[in-house]
Design brief:
The complex is a heterodimer of chains A (91) and B (217). Chain A is built from four helices and one strand, in the order ααααβ. By secondary structure, chain A is an all-alpha fold. The radius of gyration of chain A is 26 Å and the shape is elongated. By secondary structure, chain B is mainly α. Chain B has twelve helices and one strand; from the N terminus they run H-H-H-H-H-H-E-H-H-H-H-H-H. Chain B has helices at 8-36, 38-41, 55-61, 66-69, 84-91, 102-110, 130-135, 140-144, 161-169, 191-201, 206-209, 212-215, and one strand at residues 116-117. In chain B, helix 5 crosses helix 6. Chain B is extended and about 95 Å long. The N and C termini of chain B lie far apart (71 Å). Classes of the chains: A mainly alpha (91), B mainly alpha (217). Chains A and B meet through strand 1 of A and strand 1 of B. Strand 1 of chain A pairs antiparallel with strand 1 of chain B, so a sheet runs across the interface.
């Protein structure tokens, strides 16, 4: 696989397409993952979707999951503890 | 090394067990009390209305039949509420200046219907049909109580499912002859005997009455 290191800032989708197009024959690329693993692409992705930085990456463990689900269930049940709201009736 | 637990721990442990049980029981009792209290059921709580309409005056005092206003009670699921015009059959002549009736006059003048506060409000997941009850011998007063004695209408029964089932399981103590449906003061001398007869005579299939789909459709 061709590993021309490019200037990070200038690497964009056009470059990516160019790279995929230019490789053929014996050097034919086998999967998009191969491209995705390159440093430039990771950097490109990070710049393109900075929102991913705030994503919750820690795994949710079983206890925390059960706590949250239990609380949701209990709170959902609370809604039935209210009095029926008054209703208007019209001829 | 000293003992971790003092001798008094025994007492504390017993007291906490008893206390926890007591708390649990008290909590259960409180919930049940709230559930059955007039605050939740709205039983015997007169409902405020835009016009303080008195069934007592109109039914007991003047002798107007239920169906004069609740016209569709024997024919449809909804008993029906009188349009302003029904009020005006009399009140265009009587008490025409009464301040209490101002909303009625405005309603007619502006062609806007009166918006009453609903007294008997079943949950939306229950299907209820007035006509089948009326036609199978359940009187107005059986569910609505002595409406002819209510200055402002209140709810006489909880309308809880338990209450419905009391009759759906065994209608004999409640059923009455069709001719007495709108009689507010009717009392049978031998209700159980008459009831069983009427259940058979009106083809009330008691086993079907407790089918879930009977009310929850």
């Amino acid at each position: 696989m061709k590993t021309t290191v490019q200037e990070n800032a200038s690497f964009d989708l056009a470059d990516l397409r160019e790279r995929l197009r230019s490789e053929g024959g014996r050097r034919f690329w086998r999967s998009l993952d191969e491209v995705a693993q390159t440093k430039e692409f990771t950097e490109f992705l990070r710049r393109e979707f900075p929102g991913r930085a705030s994503e919750w990456l820690e795994a949710l463990d079983r206890r925390r999951f059960l706590q949250l689900m239990g609380a949701s269930l209990a709170l959902a049940g609370l809604t039935s503890c209210t009095r029926q709201a008054g209703e208007k009736i019209v001829p | 090394m000293g003992q971790i637990f003092q001798r008094s721990s025994n007492t504390i442990a017993r007291a906490s067990i008893a206390g926890a049980l007591l708390l649990f029981a008290a909590g259960g009792w409180t919930l049940s009390a709230v559930y059955w209290s007039p605050y939740t059921t709205r039983v015997n709580v007169p409902r405020e209305q835009p016009v303080p309409f008195s069934h007592k005056h109109h039914v007991n005092g003047l002798g107007i039949d239920c169906r004069y206003c609740h016209t569709s009670v024997a024919k449809s699921a909804f008993a029906g509420l009188p349009p302003t015009e029904t009020c005006m059959t009399c009140h265009s002549q009587l008490w025409t200046d009464a301040p209490l009736l101002a909303p009625v006059r405005e309603s007619l003048a502006n062609n806007q219907r009166l918006r009453w506060n609903r007294v008997h409000d079943l949950p939306d997941f229950v299907f209820f049909n007035h006509s089948i009850h009326v036609n199978k011998g359940i009187g107005c007063a059986t569910c609505h109580g002595p409406v002819d004695q209510m200055p402002l209408t209140w709810q006489q029964n909880t309308l809880y499912m338990k209450w419905c089932l009391d009759c759906h399981k065994d209608p004999a103590p409640f059923i009455r002859p069709r001719g007495e449906i709108f009689n507010m003061t009717w009392q049978a001398t031998n209700q159980l005997e008459l009831g069983s007869e009427l259940v058979a005579q009106y083809h009330v299939h008691v086993t079907q009455l407790t089918d879930c789909s009977m009310c929850h459709r």
